[in-house]
Every structure is written in C-alpha cells, then in structure tokens.
Specification:
Layout: H1 3-10, E1 15-25, E2 31-40, E3 43-51, H2 59-70, E4 78-84, H3 89-94, H4 118-132, E5 136-143, E6 147-149, E7 152-155, H5 165-173, E8 180-182, H6 200-205, E9 211-218, H7 224-240, E10 262-273, E11 278-282, E12 289-290, E13 297-300, E14 306-310, E15 316-322, E16 326-327, E17 332-344
Parallel strand pairs: 3-4, 3-5, 5-9, 7-8, 8-10
Antiparallel strand pairs: 1-2, 2-4, 6-15, 7-9, 10-17, 11-13, 11-16, 12-15, 13-14, 15-17
Helix pairs in contact: 2-7
Keywords: Hydrolase, Metal-binding, Zinc
Protein name: Succinylglutamate desuccinylase/Aspartoacylase catalytic domain-containing protein
Cofactor: Zn(2+)
Length: about 350
C-alpha cells in the first residue's frame, strides 16, 4: 500500500488525521507533496474520495471539501472519507490553473506517469492511491475566473465501465445544479481542446466505480453560497453511499435524499467566442433561456461604439456568461446549451 491507504489502514475507528503524500522537490529543495485529510468512522463501510483544486485556482471546492470533512460525525459514520484539498499543489501555490513547471493540465494527465513531467508525476502518485481504495470519487471544480456561473454538474460515461448514468445523475442532483452536462471524451468541435479521457473522474470510473465533477462557481474568488451548496451536496452523497443513516437534518444535508427527482440535462452545449475584439457587455445571467434573436451581449470597440451584437438562431440556455469585458477575437464570452431536457430520475 502507498502512503494514504497505509495511513488510513492504521487510523483508529472514529478518528481523524492528516498528512502529506510526497512526490519530489523543487530546485531549491522544498518538498512537492499532496496534502490530505482522513476521517474514519466508528464502523466499516464505503470509502469516499473528494478532490479539490485539480486546477490550482479553483478555491471554492477546497473550502467545501474542508468544511465537509471537518463536520463529519465520526461516531455515527460508517466507512471513511479522504479529502485532497489541493490535487495540484504547485498550481495552487502559484494561484494558476496549471503548474508553472510544465504548464500541463493535470486533469488531462491521469492516471499519470511515474517517470514523466512534474504534473504527470503528481497525477500518478495521487491516482495510485485513489485506485487502491475508494468506492466513489467526487472532483470539485469551478469555471474560469472571467465568467459568472451557477453551480452545475459534469459527468462522463466510460464505455467499458458498468457505472449507470442514472446513478451519476442522482448524485449530481444532490448539489442542486443549474444543469448537468454529459461531457464527451472524444473531441467535439465545440469542446475545448485536450485529452478529456485523462480526467481523474473518467479514469476512476474506468475502475467500475462512480465518479463525477461538480462546478462550484468561478475561479480565484470565494463564493460562500456556492461553497455551502457544495457542502450540502457532499453530505447527501455520503448519506446515499450508506456512510450515514440519513435520519439527520434535511436542511443541513444529513437526511436521506428522496427517491427520484429531476435534473436539467444538457444534450448539446458549446462555447461562444468573440468574432470581434473590444469590450464585451453581457445582457443576461446564468440560467436565462434566450429566445432566437435575444442578445447574449454586445461588443463595443475601444471608442465605445457597438461593433457586434451576439445572438443565436435557436433558443439557448445560458450556463455561464463572461464578466471580464476585455476580449480579443476568439476569446470565450459565453457557455450555452443548445439542447436540453428535463430528466426524471427513477423513483423507489
């Protein structure tokens, strides 16, 4: 066993601890390591992994994960919880999405490479532990700092893993998402470039275990309502996994979620990019449904004259809208769904 799993095996029932998983060192000799927190219940049961700041500036997830594990009632808990408050410590310290050492997106590098570049080594060290012990993985993210977005869910479906879509959607519904998006792992024209199949949740799902992402607002700033929303969702997931009996307070997320429920599932989505550079002024908020011809926003030139009005030929659901007005041609100014459905989840 490796460090985290060995530490968890030694941990006494109904207790907590913390530690660091060493990866290497910087040029000056400072240790590169992954911090982790452990919580073990009084009784045996499932193991829940929660990872945050896979991208180093997505801090809402870190705060939600810390609040979640610190408020667990270990005397009532079955199983264990492992929280990685930052899965990308070099990027976290730099307050950037990726580590400055190599610029790789760690969430495209899993399961990692033990002899690879720095980010690949961090991914390999973490995933080696995740793969050994864990029944469910929840990866907490946020959208880019330039955007405003309500919390929403993202999931992938591994073709060779027996993880039911309805199971993932049920867990995602616990976070009260504005929408849930099925993310294709084969590159699509409207997706951002990159190796989507290298995400930690996709690789964990390849092991035949449920894993998904929750986007909690935007990067580089604390949004307390979204942090709290994430904490409530994590508690509901823990109850659903059987870690708690579900007889607690519903308002705090400790009661057993009712069977069924509904989510707004995005069937097709795309990033909207600027055709003209200048100053973008959003004319909508996340969650708005724009009819054909209604503006997402306008772009003015540096003199203040409107040079483009961004509209659509079809209805769109606004997932996120840009709030940083300074844009060049090709910059993202919106993230929208072009097809969606109200998905009824199976009942009892």
């Amino acid at each position: 066993m490796t460090a985290i799993t060995d530490h968890l095996a030694r941990l006494a029932p109904a207790s907590r601890d913390k530690g660091r998983l060493p990866v290497g060192n910087t040029a000056s000799g400072a240790e590169i390591s992954l911090p982790y927190l452990l919580a073990r219940g009084r009784h045996d049961g499932p193991v829940l992994w929660v990872t945050a700041t896979v991208h180093g500036d997505e801090v809402n997830g870190t705060l939600a994960a810390l609040e979640f594990i610190r408020t667990l009632d270990l005397g009532r808990m079955r199983g264990a919880c492992i929280v990685i408050p930052t899965a990308n410590p070099l990027a976290f310290d730099a307050r950037t999405k990726t580590a400055p050492q190599d610029g790789l997106d760690i969430d495209q590098q899993f399961p990692g490479a033990a002899q690879g570049l720095t980010t690949q080594r961090v991914a390999a060290r973490l995933f080696d532990d995740v793969a050994r012990v864990g029944d469910c993985l929840i990866s907490l993210h946020t959208l880019t700092a330039h955007f405003e977005a309500l919390p929403y869910g993202v999931y992938k479906l591994h073709p060779d893993a027996p993880v039911a879509e309805d199971l993932l959607l049920r867990h995602l519904s616990f976070y009260d998402p504005s929408v849930v998006c099925l993310m294709p792992t084969v590159k699509a024209a409207d997706e951002l470039p990159g190796n989507i199949s290298g995400a930690i949740d996709y690789q964990f799902q390849a092991l035949g275990k449920p894993a998904f992402m929750v986007e909690l607002g935007a990067r580089s700033r604390i949004e307390w309502p979204y942090v709290h929303q994430g904490v409530i969702g994590l508690r509901r997931s823990a109850v659903e996994l059987g870690m708690f009996d579900g007889t607690g307070d519903d308002a705090d997320g400790w009661s057993r979620p009712a069977p069924g429920g509904r989510v707004r599932k995005v069937l097709k989505r795309r990033h909207v990019t600027a055709d003209r550079g200048g100053l973008f002024r959003a004319a909508c908020t996340p969650g708005d449904i724009l009819p054909p011809g209604q503006a997402l926003g306008v772009i003015t030139d540096i003199f203040g004259d409107i040079v483009d009005t961004v509209t659509f030929a079809e209805p769109v659901l606004v997932i996120a809208a840009r709030r940083d007005p300074v844009v060049a041609t090709g910059d993202r100014i919106g993230f929208v769904a072009t097809a969606w459905e109200e998905r009824q989840l199976p009942g009892a």
